Amino acid sequence: MIEFINGKVDYISPAFIVIDVSGVGYQIVTPNPFLFQKYVNEMVKVYTYQYVREDVIALYGFETRQERTLFMKLLNVSGIGPKGALAILAAGQPNAVVQAIEDENEKFLLKFPGVGKKTARQMILDLKGKLNDLLPELMPDLFEPEKFIAVTTMYTHELEEAMEALKVLGYAEKEIDKVVPQLQNEQLTTDQYIKKALQLLLR
Prior knowledge:
38% helix, 8 helices, alpha+beta, DNA polymerase, domain 1, five-stranded antiparallel sheet, 5 strands, Helicase, Ruva Protein, domain 3
């Protein structure tokens, strides 16, 4: 297995990033590709997981080993595939996810795209008591209060990119349309739009 890839961020799309390693471009699917905007043309280390099935070979990437571990544990739950696990991680609330599993809070888990009652119950059955070791070292909460940086570029383009990223994560257009009015008057980066939209979607 490829433990990590160390290279320059060459390209970012709503579904994946491309890391240039000595002239070879690795396409890596990540929970929130626009999180890597701050690294464009800079060296970055991405912790990877190679997903192999009969009809697909994909490389998934994460900022930390702990994030990758949580992704792998979610994949072991019946009913959760890579897309579902990415959507859960993209919300940026790993501690809340772990807490919901420990508290058997199905209502919170049902907020994620692709997670129905059966899958939520399976997550609790399979993972309760098995994630506590991740809590102290999990990535920082992506919803921490932060100073939003006003950007001078056309933010409507960035909002559109954010909406595309949410669709890739599995959110329905009608769900996205509900939060767009609360974002239209903001001037944020694509990454910040995604974070704020996910906050609103998970309320």
